[in-house]
Design brief:
The complex is a heterodimer of chains A (497) and B (340).
Chain A (H helix, E strand, L loop, with lengths): L2 H40 L2 H35 L1 H35 L6 H30 L4 E4 L4 E4 L2 H5 L2 H39 L3 H47 L1 H7 L6 E2 L3 E7 L7 E7 L2 H7 L5 E2 L2 H12 L8 H28 L9 H10 L1 H17 L3 E3 L11 E2 H4 L5 H32 L29
Antiparallel strand pairs in A: 1-2, 3-6, 4-5, 7-8
Chain B lengths: L2 H28 L1 H4 L3 H10 L4 H18 L1 H10 L1 H20 L6 H31 L19 H25 L3 H32 L5 H19 L3 H23 L2 E3 L9 E2 L7 H28 L21
Antiparallel strand pairs in B: 1-2
Amino acid sequence: MDALDVSRWQFGITTVYHFILVPLTIGLAPLIAIMQTMWVITKKDHWYRLTKFFGKFFLINFALGVATGIVQEFQFGMNWSEYSRFVGDVFGAPLALEGLVAFFLESTFLGLWIFGWGRLPKLVHLATIWLVAIGVNASAFFIIAANSFMQHPVGARYNAERGRAELTSIWELLTNNTALAAFPHVVAGALLTAGTFVAGIGGWSMVRSMRRAKEATDLAVAAEHESTARTMFRPVTILALWVMVASGVGLAITGDIQAKLMFEQQPMKMASAESLCHTETGADFSILTVGTQNNCENITQLISIPGLTSFLANGDPNSTLQGVTELQAQYEEQFGPGNYKPNLFVTYWTFRAMIGWAAGSAVLAVVGLWMTRGGRVPDKKWFGWLSLLAIPTPFLGNSAGWVFTEMGRQPWVVHPNPTGVDQIRLTVDQGVSDHPTSLVVFSLIVFTLLYAALGVVWFMLIRRYAIAGPSDHDKHPPGDEEEPEEPGEPKQLSFAY
Amino acid sequence: MGLQEFWFILIAVLFVGYFVLEGFDFGVGMLFPVLGRTDTRRRVMLNTIGPVWDGNEVWLITAGGALFAAFPDWYATLFSGFYLPLLLILVALILRICAIEWRGKIDDPTWRSRCDIGIMIGSWVPAVLWGVAFANIVRGVAIDENKKVVSGFFDLLNPYALLGGATTAIVFALHGAVFLALKTSGEVREDAVKLAARLSIPTVVVAGAFVLWTQLSFGKGWTWILVAVAAAALLGVVALTAVAREGWAFVLTTVAVIATVALLFGSLYPNLMPSTIDEAYNLTIYNASSSPYTLKVMTWAAVFMTPVVIGYQAWTYWVFRQRISTKQIPPSIGLPLKTR
């Protein structure tokens, strides 16, 4: 292992970790905003309780998301300084815009949302969570636009004197077709994650309340549990299940658009995702292969769907697709000697894992909507467990998707655009900082251990709050009882750390 | 004024914003062991920055992004060159964020004291290291012809830089004490007022020495004005904290922070990072900047967005302007540590 490998591992670990937390934030913010809007409109206290209940998960998650995000902002300079010099003129702009437009918005208004209960007028307070939801999604847009430049550089020229890429059009950069396809795909993935999270916890809590109602000997207690299940958990679970259905459809459509772009812009990535070792006409879609890892010559196709890959690429099952071997030969001729193949094993399996894990959410969506049809409130234990088991699947799918996207562009850190400026390309070994291996190993160990420890605490907190259920403290919104107008007698804060 | 000069000033402004706003955030955390003798008092302290600390921290993130966009070579050289200090700062900030946000989630003394340790580490480490880092930027480090820093970690710990670290630490502690005096009432305020008065005199000595050293070694003619402003502000703080006028004292600690950061950037100009090997290797605003187009685009964005951001952040401070006392802290709504 040299500094390059260690730097790649560090960036991979820190980014995957960050992106476990990010989709939940991106998806949960609008869901909580919807819950709070329902409360403001219907004035029903259980929507308030749900807002507060899921708000706690949001805050627990947001903290670690911010903490791991700060590292990302500086890691480019720390470990990838040559890359930063090469693309800073272009890449820095969306990063700075993200800070200026999105980070300030979400962090400031989240503070107002957390502490503003009972202090801001209801509608103003509602606006703060919507602004948070807009902020987190805007930040996703800017960072995906930045990433899309690495996958498909546009809007830039090459300055030979400075040896760097230079921005020529911010508009082209922000409307990069790669970004316009990736952004909705990521947002749909985030909504699927948050939808599954809410439906999972909601479904499990609903079953638990129903079982408690059955077991209760006191009639009043039983009635209260049943009412909790029926009037609180059932509607929020159904809301989340429909969000899952909609985002699942969105994922499929945007995924298809992305795949078509990828065949055009990064044929090597798609060829290795499909284990398409040689150029084929009417290429099959492989479902299962066996063989020696990462070796084209030793792969045996076991199950495949005829013509599907060609159809996905061009909408025509009989179109011709280039294989890994031919692309390698073509790149060597174009860019000189070198290995231009990504790790075939990783790209093949992460692509399948990404799609496969979505099945977890799909099962819950179908079963959940069936179980709650026509006013039914399920009390089957297995449904509670199914709800919980579905929760991690979109997280795994998101990670697999990003690992595929990022490891599929290897060995490039800036992938050459087949229809763009020829010199705007950089391989990862040209982008890495010139550090001693020991230094990077040290930071890798520090980040990994710290993140692992915080991850354990994060999971413990989420689990504890899910088991505890909605707090009795939040039964009624602040402002129900008469309150002195400011400035008057100092009253207790409605929320304090 | 060219765009490169404008962006140099804008980045200085972003760091001024960061140090003014996070300065008292750090100060509040640093003073936990001194002013926060009981859990309720610690909660009073924490909640003075509760709604705003996250937004304050974004000034750093945005400064980092702006550095990347406007002076990519500075970003690359600085962050790869100051690898270890930056790693320590990042670890500290991670601990602090999680500790602040998770502290109240579990109602247990052990849990809370662990979080308090996280908050204190997360406040002390950056408060010292930012001073060390900026002093080294002004002083210059060994930068070779490839714009790479070749000096080691221990070269960063020279006397001037250590004095810089001591300065930021004590100034932030004072800034935090004055802020706490301004934002609290009752016993916390009384103690904060006393502490601020006691801290102000050593602050004048330490910060005065650093500011003077900076001016004499790296300053320009016009930066004497900043030295005078910083000195006058700090002396004013001594007088005002002695008579418990924390509102004006806070204005003056803010002025002192602004003047000191301005002095550092003013002494640096037009360099971004001087090289101690050869002046020809200096990173300057001219050889490290982005292209004119990028600077122009970013200027438009900054000119439109910065006032908006300042506007809504100011509004947040206005919304949460009330003083907090121990009487206003509600009972903890955290869960018990162990499941029953």
